[in-house]
Amino acid sequence: MAKAFFRLQKFLRRTQCLLFFLTAAYLMAGSLLLLQRTRLVIQQGSRGTPASQALPVPEEMGRAGPEEPGSLQSPRAGPGLPPGTDGLQEPALEPRHGPHWLLSRNSELRQLRRRWFQGLSSEREPLQTAGLGAGKRTAEHKGSYMGCFTHDSRERTLKGAVFYDLRKMTVAHCQEACAERAYSYAGLAYGAECYCGNTLPAAAAKAEECNSECRGQKGSVCGGINRLSVYGLEGLRAGARRRRNVIYRGCFRAPENLTDTFPASLIQPNLTVEMCSEFCSKKEFPLAVIRGQECYCGFPTGRFSLREGADGLRCSGARNASTAAGGHYCLVYQTPVQDTRCTDRKFLTTKSKVFVALSSFPGAGNTWARHLIEHATGYYTGSYYFDGALYNKGFKGEKDHWRSRRTICVKTHESGRTEIEMFDSAILLIRNPYKSLMAEFNRKYAGHLGYATDRNWKGKEWPDFVNSYASWWASHVLEWLKYGKRLLIVHYEELKQSLIPKLKEMVEFLNVTVTEDRLLCVENNRDGNFKRSGAKQKNFEPFTQEMKDLINRYILTVDEALRGRNFSGLPREYVPR
User: Fold this and answer.
1) What is the CATH number of domain 356-531+543-564?
2) Which of residues 533 and 20 earns the better pLDDT score?
3) What b/e readout covers 154-167, taking b as 16+ CB neighbours within 10 angstroms?
């Protein structure tokens, strides 16, 4: 009996080992087969599409997606369209004088959009916050610690500028940013948020409640949940060059009653710009107005909107009120203090019933338009993508799911039929393709606020980029015109030139009511943190004649499609003459 049991046990051991080796061999064979098939697919995808059939697609894009015939609007071909060119690759089967030939490129354009989205994540610059990057930073902070205070984001005590940095926030960064803007106090909260102001918070909190570690410096405390770590900045302010952030706005006709128009004033013999700016900065006003020995502080309002400037010669004697055209004109300066009447933003309290897109081709000013919309309406905008650099700049809707309906509108660069029909309405932002292509090329190679180098512009990257992206600019507009349910067409150049009238149209389209003062605040903060910095490219013409011929065809095609839908055509400066 014992022998039989021993033999059975031995047999089971052998069987267990055999099963183990068989399983391992099966898994190895499956892995080799999978690797072989993957290699085959990559080799097939890298062959690309023949130039006679489609737009050249970079090799790393892999296989094209399934085609969707008829997904582009096909308006009548204009009689004045210029003839084709041979310099850039183009379809040989159809003439390039209308949008029909774009039909065969849908799959390639979808792949290009996918590659753009992947590049948005992989090519992103190290996250930075505008305003926190100026100057050499020190690891040790120099401000005086004032204590831990309560913090309410809706009713802020530190009402000045606000900065975010989810990865690199330190006490020193926040202090320097606030000191450069002439604020007296800097407060940190949530480990990543920086608030500036000139009034110390009234409600103190327990020291242990400020317990959030700074994201950019281990061992340092940057406030807590609804708690501020506050520092006094007198030492830093004394060493700062206060005037470098004071901007001359121009000469303007003074309102009839200055004391009623401006909340704060100062009469000072031998008044200087620095003295007036410093006084108004301490009072937390963005405007410093000088007439003779009088200094006034305030905001742009309906009574003093700064829309109509006067000849600078009329203010040549503004330091002497009796000679400045009878005292009717004044000098206006922008102080380092931010106009905070339109900086409060929040998510929608209830889900929006209308799902609105803010759609544009990359490089058309979508981020700037979001800045304007958020400050005008007081509500965050969402995004089909996630960009940590934009979240750091205060676009908190970046982290919210784009279909949550908690944002006033959603940024998107998509133009497929399925993606378009998900939205109930859309603001379609269009920019001159020459400017859009250059802006997106700069973003691709130098981030949101940088410039591409001369090497990028004069290398093979730029011709390849134009060849690939120019048709996307046209197809984006055409597809939204075809599948969009309710559209508001906004041209970037018109928005820039007539900000308040165009912004009013956009706000009304979003079904939000705003005050004139809030719109004037937006105009006063119109640039936000979106001006490019660094070495601007030299003055040279980046577009060859072949590129111009290609882009001009797209311009005429889009212009005709807009008119065919009873919209005004493209601005005159777009259309080649």
Assistant:
1) 3.40.50.300
2) 20
3) eebbbbbbbbbbbe
The span from the CA of 185 to the CA of 205, in Å, is 17
Residues 551/543, Cβ–Cβ less than 8 Å: yes
- Specify the long-range contacts of residues 105-108, CB closer than 8 Å, at least 24 apart: 105/54, 105/55, 105/471, 105/475, 106/67, 106/68, 106/69, 106/71, 106/72, 106/475, 107/54, 107/64, 107/65, 107/66, 107/67, 107/68, 108/49, 108/54, 108/55, 108/57, 108/64
Domain edges within the chain: 144-239, 247-334, 356-531+543-564
Burial class (CB in 10 A: 0-12, 13-18, 19+), 436: buried
Residues 210-225 pLDDT 10s: 999 998 888 899 999 9
Which tens digit of pLDDT belongs to each residue from 52-110? Answer: 333 333 333 333 333 333 333 333 333 333 333 333 333 333 444 444 445 445 555 55
Task: List 163's β-bridge partners, or say none.
Answer: 194
Contact criterion met (CB below 8 Å) for 30 and 8: no
**CB-based burial label for 47 (10 Å; 0-12, 13-18, 19+):** exposed
With a cut of 80, say whether residue 126 has pLDDT above it: no
The β-bridge relationship of strands 356-360 and 410-412 is: parallel
What does the pLDDT look like over 556-576, one tens digit per residue?
999 999 999 999 999 988 876
